[in-house]
Amino acid sequence: MSANSINLISGRTIQQGVAMEGGKEKDKYHKACGIIEMDNEDFKKLDIMKNTNVSVTSSYGSVVVKAIETTQGPHPGVAFIPMGPWANSVVSDETYSTGMPTFKGTPVFIKAAPDERVLKMIELMRYNCWGEKQ
Amino acid sequence: MTRTITDVVCPFCGTLCDDLIVTVSEDGKKLLDVENACAIGAEKFLHTQASDRVTRPRKIQEDGSSVEVSYDEAIEYTAQLLVNAKKPLMYGWSSTSCEAQSVGSEIAEQVGAIIDNTAAVCHGTTLVAVQNVGIPSCTLGEVKNRADRIIFWGCNPAHAHPRHMSRYSIFPRGYFTGKGHKNRKLIVVDPRTTDTSSLADVHLQVEQGADYELLQALRAAVRGQELTGDIIAGVPKEKVYEAADLLKSGRFGVIFFGMGVTQSLGKDHNIDAAIMLTKDLNEYTKFSIIAMRGHYNVTGSGQVLGWQFGFPYSVDLSRGFARYNPGETGSIELLKRKEADAIVVLGSDPGAHFPVRCVREIANLPSVCIDPHITPTSEICKLHVPVAFVGIEVGGNCYRMDNVPIDSRKVIEPPEGMMTDEEFLRAVNTRVSELKAA
Fold first, then answer.
1. Is the domain covering A5-130 a CATH 3.40.50.1170 domain?
2. Which candidate in A16, B150, B153, B340 could, as Cys together with A82 as Cys, close a disulfide (CB 3.0–4.6 Å)?
3. How close A112 comes to chain B (CA, Å)?
4. Is the separation of the CB atoms in B320 and B87 below 8 Å?
5. DSSP codes of every residue in B286-305
6. ipTM score for this prediction
7. If 0-12 CB within 10 Å is exposed, 13-18 middle and 19+ buried, where does residue B7 land?
């Protein structure tokens, strides 16, 4: 992996679960899922400021999320986006003939994107599917 | 005046807690309070009362706005879509009852669909591994009453199954486990330090994606073989020996495993190794293994498809008989190959939980989303059909993660005029029969 790349995994958080059941169209959902969690060391290595928006890019897509210090860590060299449309904009869809995408273990590049905003769920879906940005 | 209903089943995760207490208004139309549920379960019950809930089917327009249609129109649209498609995909089924799943299977057979459940992106590789090597398993009741060694491998129940540890695996005092958590030893295997691993006696912080290597090392250590190298899959060799000794010294142990093993590289081979580790440990003590199933009735969907067609997920009925080959007939590969020409989603949200390439494909297909919530899927489908919440507004049979069937209960009335998913599917099935006969 190159200097600004990191290994991405996704998964459940209780905040994501509560927000999901409370309505995925609500602000709570994009605040719970439109984030990327990283260790302090990785923030330094990637030259990214905490609590700023970043662009996460893989071979499978790109998404803007807010970078925050990990809530469950440390996990050096691993970044975490809670499961949801933001994580799935960049995870590997490769199944290696098993039918199961590789939701955990996608190399991603991260760069600061302070001028971009994190899209809300409906905006993100429309942008990802039809390229419409509001 | 209010009424209190006890022993209510929670329709959120595969733990299927059955000790909730729900307070409803005297007329049974309003849900006022939920006790004993975790934060996620409580939110699900309370969300039924949302003032902005969608109560009638709606067609989504190209500009994102929606137009309300009647249930009759929605039934006709869904039946026509299925009958006119050559290879429709009927996906989801994990957040509904076995009764609705049975009707769905009947429709799929009539129209020659591919019928798949959320195991496709969850524990599908587990099901493949079980077919490869079998599974020595037990119920959660046995875990509560007997288990003194617990492994959580690639799962984080503190967040994903919040009451699992307090009801079954770590804290409860059972028949042979009278001292509760004091008698239980916990090993957590996770590349992250998590809220679950903070409770562990041993945390093996495995290198992400190297679970297979660690599982095989643990098997060797259990058998007393020498391990080469100081660090194995990111874990110091001594810790692997320590974990092996801890496991062998117990009277009854259980491995719970989750997405960390099923979705990482190695996939079904990881589970093969985990099951073989369970088999090996039975040479020394008693051991079982249980998959941490996510949706409250994904296990039931596997059961229904199993008894209808002989396969637990990714069943292709397009040739008039059941075929199963997840790497080919699974939803992900099907959508990637652009092979499905219509999609019906029920009780799941692939819009949120499929990789973006597959989501894009769904957005371009004739599509119906049957779901009580507004979801990423409902926003990219052509028709959204809201239905009553199973387990809250209508009862139905569900299977817990350990394959124990539990009847969920109705506690309140759905909004007036709203159909249940079983009623909607039955109406679609009848209409499909008529169209096929014509």
1. no
2. A16
3. 22
4. no
5. EEEEEE---BTTHHHHHHHH
6. 0.96
7. exposed
**Which of B156, B191, B374 shows the shortest C-beta gap to A12?**
B156
Q: Return the H-helix or E-strand segment holding B125.
A: helix B124-133
Question: How many angstroms separate the CA of residue A115 from the nearest CA in chain B?
Answer: 24
Written as one letter, the residue type at A113 is A
Locate B167 and state its tokens: 């009801």
State yes or no: cis peptide before B414, omega within 30 of 0. no
Burial of B266 (0-12, 13-18, 19+ CB in 10 A): buried
B376 to A125: CB separation less than 8 angstroms, yes or no: yes
CB-CB contact of B121 with B353 (8 Å)? yes
Min CA distance, A130 vs chain B (Å)? 8
Distance from CA of B169 to the nearest CA of A (A): 19
Return the residue of A nearest to B379 by Cα.
A122
Element (H, E) at B406: strand B405-408
Q: What is the pLDDT of residues B259-312, one digit of tens each?
A: 999 999 999 999 999 999 999 999 999 999 999 999 999 999 999 999 999 999
Across the interface, whether the CB atoms of B208 and A78 are under 8 A apart is answered yes
* Token couple for B330: 């699974």
**Sequence-ordered list of residues with C-beta below 8 angstroms from that of B106, at least 6 positions apart, any chain:** B429
Going by CATH, does the domain composed of B124-291 fall within 3.40.228.10? yes
B-chain CB neighbours of A7 within 8 Å are 208-209
Q: Listing from the earlier edge strand, what are the strands of the sheet with B2-8?
A: B2-8, B20-25, B31-35
CB contact under 8 A, B351 and A7: no
Please check whether residue B338 is in contact with residue B89, taking contact to mean a CB–CB distance below 8 angstroms.
no
CA trace torsion B335, B130, B268, B259 (10° rounding): 80
Quote the CA–CA distance of A87 and A93 in Å, as a whole number: 12
Residue B367: other Cβ atoms inside 10 A: 24
Q: What is the pTM of this model?
A: 0.96
Phi first, then psi, for residue A98 (nearest 5°) are -105, -15
Distance, in Å, from the CA atom of B70 to the CA atom of B74, rounded to the nearest integer, reads 6
Nearest alpha carbon to residue B288 among B172, B176, B148, B194: B148
CB-based contact, B257 to chain A, within 8 Å: no
Domain ranges of chain A: 5-130
8 A C-beta contact, residue A45 and residue A14: no
Segment B376-412, tens digit of pLDDT:
999 999 999 999 999 999 999 999 999 999 999 999 9
CATH of domain B58-122+296-437: 3.40.50.740
Q: Which amino acid is at B355?
A: P
